[in-house]
Every structure is written in structure tokens, then in C-alpha cells.
From TrEMBL, chains A, B:
Protein name: Recombination protein RecR
Known function: May play a role in DNA repair. It seems to be involved in an RecBC-independent recombinational process of DNA repair. It may act with RecF and RecO.
Keyword DNA damage: yes
Gene Ontology biological-process entries: DNA recombination; DNA repair
Organism: Dasania phycosphaerae
Amino acid sequence: MAYSPLIDQLVDALRCLPGVGPKSAQRMAFHLLERDREGGFKLAQHLEQAMQGVNRCEQCRTLTEQPKCAICANTKRDHETICVVEAPSDVVALEQSGQYRGTYFVLMGKLSPIDGIGPEEIGVSHLLTRIQQQQVKEVILATNPTVEGEATAYYITAQLKALGVTVSRIAHGVPLGGELEFVDVGTLAHALEGRQVIA
Amino acid sequence: MAYSPLIDQLVDALRCLPGVGPKSAQRMAFHLLERDREGGFKLAQHLEQAMQGVNRCEQCRTLTEQPKCAICANTKRDHETICVVEAPSDVVALEQSGQYRGTYFVLMGKLSPIDGIGPEEIGVSHLLTRIQQQQVKEVILATNPTVEGEATAYYITAQLKALGVTVSRIAHGVPLGGELEFVDVGTLAHALEGRQVIA
Ligand SMILES: [Zn+2]
Ligand SMILES: [Zn+2]
């Protein structure tokens, strides 16, 4: 369906958002144009600023516009414990559980040879360097309990063996095949509490 | 939950989209930041352009960046028949039915005294002027079959009585309480076909 070029382009562009099909994209475009131009302008501006300004934390690789994210920059956090997760949304989920006072390392992915994602792409050498340079005592592996998440945890465990740190895996309690960010905070708190030393 | 100011602002701004709660806004922001910056930049640009450039058709009031929309500007359409709808999305739905060759008048709302929306806000005088100046023969009222949509159709019918045009109401076939834009094209085609003269 052709509206007018500017509207067509907006409907098209909205489809880059996850979960937005042609019908919802049209609803969104008309909603903004008919009822919330100010919201539309603000969204344009904040999109532009975030796409431009947000990079990765130089210590934990999560998304932030500062050189170091707020957690890495916080001297009250326990910097001797690192929790390894797949994505920034997992950091959010774990923070919401309120059970964790350590720091993070965000892989920004998981090992997936079929997609060409190897140890370098998920920053494993960066993690190893950080563990050696700082006095890290424990690494908690909180990758998702999926086949690829488990393989990633297994690979990192093998790399960490020689470094003399305690390596633990987040407790099962997170449902198998599930994704951290969709688990309720109670389950997450429980899973962290019940973590087991695996190396 | 606080990420970093630029990400917080983006998550917040995404909530101006209809049907987007805090959880989906977060997913959208992370998706763009982690995997589709180009899509994010493009969306920012097309939002800006559309919010800036899209206005209302001077003849039918629908959304367009031209003085007249493509339908009003099309001399092959039947300009002696006007279909009155509540919103631009209704034009899209009726066009998709493929049954209509006339033009439109888009109220951009419906009578709703409680919200301060009277005849002037929905452009009734503009519609009357157009009917008098052009040789309009039939006005099809295709407001939604809701209480307010029916009241709007009733009011417009009363205003049109003195003008000597045929006034018809879209056939019931559109489910009562339903909204045009969510009705399948077959039902819409049928409803147009079975319209009845009411004045
Ligand atoms: Zn960090
Ligand atoms: Zn028009």
C-alpha cells in the first residue's frame, strides 16, 4: 500500500524494530503523525544521539556512552568477582535481582562457529587479560542455558583453568532453553545464590 | 532501571510508540544498539522528515506531504462521490478492498463532546463547502459503527439534508463495535457494495 513517500519511508524504517510487522508499523506511523509529533521528534533526536554516542565499556564491554560504565566505575562494587553474560539486557536482569554486588563481562554474543563467531568476537582474550591484571578471585558464568550458551561457558572454563580463579556456573533454576532477560527476578536471585563451583 | 543517560532517554522515547511498554522499549533499544545502528540512524532520519514534512491534504484532510494527496490529485477517480472516514488508516483499508473509485474526506477524529471535539474540529464546514463548490452527487458515510461514529454520521447527515446530495451509510457487515482498519478486505468490499441510501 502506498501512502505518500515520506509516510512509506517511515513505515518501512519502523520495521527495523524487533517485533514490528507492516500492520504495527503503519499504526505507529499514523499514531505519531496524527497525535504525537512531539514524541516523534523526540524519538528521532534520542535515536540519533544514542546511535552516535553509545559505545562499549572499555572494561566490561557493555553499552555505555562513557569510557567505563556506571558499574565498572563504581568503587563500591566488588571488582574481584566478574559475572560473564551474553548481552547488556542480562546485566539489567541480574541487577534487578538485587543479589549481585560484583562486576560484569559482557560477551555481546556467544560462540557460534556456524555464524563465524569465535572466541575473539566475544572478547575472551580481553576477559583473560582483565583477570590477570586485576585481582579477580571468582568468575561466575551466567551465559544462557542453551546449547550455545553452555558451549560458551565450557570454552571459557577451559581457558580459565590455568589462571587459578574460582569459576562458577549460575545455578539451574533458570529454565533450560530459556533466556535470562525473560526470567523473573526471584528465580534469578535463587539461581545466583545456588551457583556451584565448577573449576 | 538506569543504564546510561543516552540509553535511558532512548528507551523512554520509544514508549511514545503505541503498544510499546518498558520491556519492549528496552528490547528495541538494545537491538538497535547491538545489531542495527544503520537501521536506527535511518529511522531517526525518516521520523524527522515525516514529522516535519507531512501535513494534511487541502481537499480531503488525509496525511500527505503534497498540497493534495495522490487520490485527490488523480483525475481518474470519481470526484462526484466522497467517502467520509474517521482516519487515514480507514482510507488505507478501503483502498485495499479495491471496490472504491471515488474520493475521501477524512475527519481526523469523530464527534466527542466530552473531549471537546465538535463539528469544527472534524472539519464539517470544510466538507460542506467542498460539496457545494464541486459537483458532488453522493456522500458515503463510513465512520466506524461505534456509538461516537454513529453519532458523527447522524450529525453529518442532518447537515447534508439541505444540499440535495445522496447520503449513504456503509452497509453493516462491518461488525458492530469494530474498527474499519481491522476488518478483512472481503467484508469491507461487501459493506461498500451493500450501502443503503439514508437521506
Ligand atoms: Zn563496564
Ligand atoms: Zn486528499
